[in-house]
Write a structure and sequence with these properties.
The protein contains 8 helices and 9 strands. By secondary structure, the protein is α+β, with helices and mostly antiparallel strands. The protein has 3 domains: about 100 residues, Tetratricopeptide repeat domain (Serine Threonine Protein Phosphatase 5, Tetratricopeptide repeat, Alpha Horseshoe); about 70 residues, Carboxypeptidase-like, regulatory domain (Immunoglobulin-like, Sandwich); about 110 residues. The strands form 3 sheets. It has a 4-stranded antiparallel sheet with strand order 3-2-5-6, with no helix packed on it. A hairpin with a 2-residue loop joins strand 8 and strand 9. The chain is elongated and about 115 Å long. The chain starts with a helix and ends with a strand.
């Protein structure tokens, strides 16, 4: 009974010591007023055993202003909440931050050591044949290559292990940690359909290239037609001009209009040629898709109102 009372008194003294850590020992402040308010709310909830309220309050206080006392009580709250791996990590963090001659450091070291032997471990392995670019996550956090295949401290309870890789469906598994050591092997899901995603095999680059090329061809055809019409108009001026190309007023007007059409035809043809070349380059540099051009239909022709280019996918 005496030993029990001594233990209670010692715990109270340790908590009091942590709560009295001066603000000057805290790291660079972000919002000290908010941090203090959140700390008091969290501490009150911790004292009455409302850990679901206390832990988030203390964590928010720590984010507002990093303080050793807040970190101590957060770890204490997490331990009482059953999140012993997280609590151990926070005690170890505080252990590293406190100077070696700090009178509080032995207590923190003792708390961390007491938790370490109780922490369950989870080993996540990937099945053989798993793509090298597969990504494995635990509760939404990516696990690095060094963590895979090695026992990793984890809080008791249910956790989600997921694996995904390009070209494969996401595969997700639930694992309940209720023993000292747990092992799970994950594998990627089934292969997804080729080209099922917009980014797959060419994406939008092929139709964009063909569209640009189609417009370019239409412009070239248009330029040729305008040039032919201009040449025909030029020839219509011959009755109004002599053998030395001296023309009357009507002949001069006809030839000037014809030259304007010729210039326009040259410009339109040049733009069309450039667009056609650009379209070909865009199409040729796109990742090739099965079917490629066969899945695209485009036509260029002359309609009642001029040049018509039509493309369908």
């Amino acid at each position: 009974m005496a030993a029990s009372k001594l233990s209670v008194r010692l715990s109270c003294a340790l908590l009091a010591a942590a709560s009295s850590m001066p603000l000057s020992a805290r790291a660079q402040s972000k919002d000290p007023a908010a941090a203090e308010a959140l700390f008091q709310q969290g501490k009150e909830a911790l004292d009455r055993g409302d850990y679901d309220t206390a832990c988030p309050k203390l964590e928010a206080s720590l984010k507002a202003e990093a303080a050793p006392g807040t970190l101590f009580f957060l770890a204490d709250c997490e331990e009482k909440q059953g999140r012993i791996a997280t609590a151990w990590a926070h005690f170890k963090e505080l252990e590293q931050k406190l100077p070696a001659d700090d009178s509080r450091r032995p207590t923190v070291v003792q708390r961390a050591a007491a938790l370490q032997s109780r922490i369950p471990k989870l080993t996540v392995k990937v099945a053989s044949g798993t793509p090298a670019n597969a990504v494995v996550t635990r509760d939404g956090i990516e696990m690095g290559a060094a963590s895979l295949g090695s026992p990793t401290p984890i809080d008791p309870g249910e956790h989600t292990i997921a694996i995904e890789a390009p070209g494969h469906a996401r595969n997700e598994s639930k694992v309940v940690i209720d023993r000292p050591s747990t092992e799970i092997t994950v594998s990627v899901g089934e292969r997804t359909a080729t080209g099922a995603t917009p980014a797959g095999k060419g994406g939008a680059q092929v139709p964009v290239g063909i569209t640009i090329g189609s417009i370019g061809v239409a412009a070239m055809v248009s330029g040729v037609i305008v040039g032919v019409v201009g040449k025909s108009n030029y020839d219509d001026s011959d009755p109004f001009c002599d053998e030395d190309d001296f023309c009357g007023p009507e002949g001069i007007t006809i030839r000037e209009d014809a030259r304007t059409m010729g210039t326009a035809a040259t410009v339109v043809f040049a733009i069309g040629a450039a667009a056609t070349a650009t379209g070909i380059i865009v199409w040729l540099t796109a990742p090739k898709d099965e079917g490629g051009l066969a899945s695209t239909n485009w036509r260029v022709g002359v309609g009642p109102s001029g040049i018509v280019a039509r493309t369908s996918w």
